[in-house]
Design brief:
The chain is α/β, with parallel strands linked by helices and 246 residues long. It contains 11 helices and 11 strands. α4 packs across α5.
Length: 246
Amino acid sequence: MNDESLKKVLSAVRKGRLSIPEALDSLKHLPYEDMSFAKVDHHRHLRLGIPEVIYAAGKSVDQVVGIARSLHQRSGGFLITRATEEMYRSLGIRGAVFHPASGMISLGGEKRKRGGVLILTAGTSDIGVAEEAAVTASYLGSRVRSVHDVGVAGLHRLMDNAGRMKKARVIIVVAGMEGALPSVVGGLTGKPLIAVPTSAGYGTSLGGLTALFAMLNSCVPGIAVMNIDNGFGAGCLAHKINTAGG
């Protein structure tokens, strides 16, 4: 959208020919910014409540930097997943933060944190995926608490956190190996539960397929299951549930 078309919308609102809700609706489907290698959707947040996020894997450093700078210029912030430290160093944008555990880069985000998202990991090897969920949900505006290494091999560790599960509005459970922890947590609480299988595990974990199948076949009803290692997706869904209703 260029300056002239935006001026027309604003002028129509000022003159009473267009209501504010109608103007907002017209802004939800504005053209993207065509950068040849990427078409950056600057108005996704208006439509979805989730801004465009840069998936860095498979992109060159220059491509990631170019998209990030474009987002920064328009909105003042950005979120990058599966990034490298080289990408972070190449950004040259003051205030950007590199999260080494998850390989994410963030700048800006919602300052006011609401509700309560609790993230549980079965093992220490699952922390990277859990951190991706945590950074995402926090960036979007959710209050996040993480508890690590409370897997089924020592259930007393999980039960020590019963109070935190009771207070949370939504729970993310991240687990590799046999993927049993979401079923256990789901049997202890009625809170919305998002299960994330990880690729952590020995040979027959099949890169996370065993955990994925276990979560999909849980006898606990109503568990939402993400793709393998998809902490970002879990963070987005958790935020939407956490903030539903305002």
